[in-house]
Design a protein that fits this description.
Shape: elongated
Number of helices: 2
Largest sheet: 8 strands, antiparallel, barrel
Oligomer: single chain
Structural class: mainly beta
């Protein structure tokens, strides 16, 4: 539980200090991107909106089948909705991104359906052209499971890569 408190405190500290770390990004307010192995699980499609200076809100969607690795038989479906708030620092096109939020959804296997409600974050690099254009993100995505029924461990670290367009 100490790791969760430290992570949340760190995110709050960084988000409350936008004038100390970064310049304002000009122009664009919206982004759409595809993320592979990130906060949404196997993949996700995301919409992001710049809400204040270097603070961005994001919502995504993912739905994929799970399967038994040996038999490759469909065993269920996972549907997730990542909802995060991120802060960007850096200059020009290159940025450090840190954010946190929730991963909501459900995991269905046969007739059994378990809710997903996890605390997730993103820590990584972001390339974003100064005006509209190409967007690239890569980083680690730590996750703390609030509903332990969905994972063997309550704390997991994965990595994700995103490619998209901001406008």
């Amino acid at each position: 539980m100490g790791k969760i408190k430290f992570l949340l405190l760190f995110i709050c500290f960084v988000c409350l200090q936008p004038h100390c770390f970064s310049q304002d990004l000009p122009g664009t307010k919206n982004a759409i991107y595809f993320e592979l192995f990130g906060n949404g699980g196997l993949y996700s499609i995301n919409y992001e909106r710049n809400i204040h200076r270097n603070i961005y809100c994001r919502i995504g969607y993912s739905s994929f089948q799970t399967s038994d690795i040996i038999d490759r038989v469909n065993t269920g479906r996972i549907t997730t909705v990542p909802v995060l708030v991120s802060f960007l620092s850096g200059h020009n096109k290159h940025h450090f991104e840190i954010g946190g939020g929730l991963l909501l959804g459900k995991k269905r296997e046969g007739t059994v359906s378990n809710p997903i409600c996890d605390i997730t974050s993103f820590i990584g690099y972001r390339y974003q052209a100064l005006l509209k254009g190409f967007l690239f993100r890569a980083g680690i995505t730590p996750l703390v499971s609030v509903t332990d029924a969905n994972y063997p461990d309550s704390f997991m670290i994965s990595a994700g890569v995103s490619i998209g367009y901001h406008f």
